[in-house]
Design a protein that fits this description.
- The structure holds 2 protein chains of 2 kinds.
- Chain A has 9 helices and no strands.
- Chain A is mainly α.
- Chain A has one domain: Alpha Horseshoe (Serine Threonine Protein Phosphatase 5, Tetratricopeptide repeat).
- Chain A is globular and about 50 Å long.
- About 4% of the residues of chain A have low confidence.
- Chain B is mainly alpha-helical.
- Chain B has one domain: Orthogonal Bundle (Cytochrome Bc1 Complex, Chain D, domain 2).
- Chain B contains 5 helices and no strands.
- The longest helix of chain B has 12 residues.
- The radius of gyration of chain B is 13 Å and the shape is globular.
- The model of chain B has no long low-confidence stretch (mean pLDDT 86).
- The chains are: A mainly alpha, B mainly alpha.
- Chains A and B meet through α3, α4, α6, α8 and α9 of A and α1 and α4 of B.
């Protein structure tokens, strides 16, 4: 009789842990979505990101925007990038900047794109450095063609990616 | 639903990739590390002049470029999937 209670307790703990795993928070959803994406599971990643974005998670919004952009659903991507950028997330700032740079889902506006990249740069965000490196390398967004600046930004991007 | 539509779109596009656009995108996004003609500039980058560097299906290469690999950043959000497949088609002309 007495041995039943520990077993019941263990089962309860297991159930709680399982429930916790099933209802992970939005940050965990984003992490798991990244893993799924690396393994090529696009539908699974999209479902997790959608759930996290619905919970107002700014990085999830930007990541979901990236997936929609990949699928050329530009206008919906921009809505998500904008929401994410309004919350100050650098991934949202870069996503919205890229949309303005390409005129994808918003009017083409290189000056606005550069401004958004600069804001993300202030947050030491590697993709912002990558974007600025490309702009210097190609002499776009109103920047001069400057290979040395491009290389400097590439090094900054590499350093930011290497940062813990 | 969207993901399924995307997969269908990609399967169709794989047969009609735009090599010229791939070359332009390669010059902008890849050449700084992978070299202007596919001979790597950065240590550790694959040599696209060698056939074995690309002996994988397009969809596998797409997943690698999308998600990033080693020192290479992910291009999800930077390039659309259709554009990545254009780059892959161009890469296959280098060897």
């Amino acid at each position: 009789m007495t041995t039943r209670f520990p077993i019941r307790g263990m089962l309860c703990t297991l159930a709680l842990l399982t429930a916790g795993a099933l209802h992970a928070g939005p940050s965990e959803d984003v992490q798991q979505a990244d893993t799924l994406l690396r393994n090529g599971d696009l539908p699974g990643a999209m479902a997790l990101l959608r759930r996290a974005a619905d919970q107002d998670h700014p990085l999830a919004m930007a990541r979901l925007g990236d997936l929609l952009r990949a699928a050329e659903v530009e206008s919906e991507a921009v809505v998500l990038y904008r929401k994410s950028a309004e919350r100050g997330d650098p991934a949202g700032l870069v996503g919205l900047g890229r949309a303005h740079a390409d005129g994808a889902g918003v009017p083409r506006d290189p000056a606005r794109a550069l401004e958004l990249y600069r804001q993300a740069e202030q947050k030491d965000y590697a993709p912002a450095f990558d974007a600025l490196a490309r702009a210097y390398r190609t002499g776009t967004l109103g920047l001069p063609l400057d290979v040395q600046q491009a290389e400097a930004y590439q090094r900054k991007a590499a350093a930011a990616k290497g940062a813990p | 639903m969207l993901a399924a539509a995307l997969l269908t779109l990609l399967a169709t596009h794989a047969h009609g990739a735009d090599i010229n656009r791939g070359a332009t995108l390669y010059a902008t996004h890849c050449a700084a590390c992978h070299g202007a003609n596919g001979t790597p500039v950065m240590p550790g980058a694959p040599n696209f002049r060698r056939l074995e560097a690309l002996m994988r299906p397009d969809m596998q290469l797409l997943a690698s470029i999308r998600g990033g690999k080693g020192a290479m950043p992910g291009y999800l959000g930077v390039l659309r999937d259709r554009e990545i497949l254009d780059v892959v088609a161009y890469l296959r002309t280098l060897s």
